[in-house]
Amino acid sequence: MDCFFPIGTPGEPWGDAEKQTWFESQSIQRSYREEVLSKLQTLDRSFDVRPYGSLSLDPERYPLMGVRISASRPDAPWALITGGVHGYETSGVQGALEFLQTHASAYHDRVHLLVLPCVSPWAYEVINRWNPNAIDPNRSFLADKPCEESAAVMDAVEELGVDFLMHVDLHETTDSDESEFRPAVAARDGHALISGSIPDGFYTVGDTENPQPEFQAALIAAVERVTHIAPADAGGQIIGSEVTQHGVINYPFAELGLCAGVTGARFTTTTEVYPDSPNATPEICIAAQVATVCAGLDFVLANT
Question: Which among 129, 142, 58, 63 is positioned nearest to 90, based on CA atoms?
Answer without folding.
Answer: 129
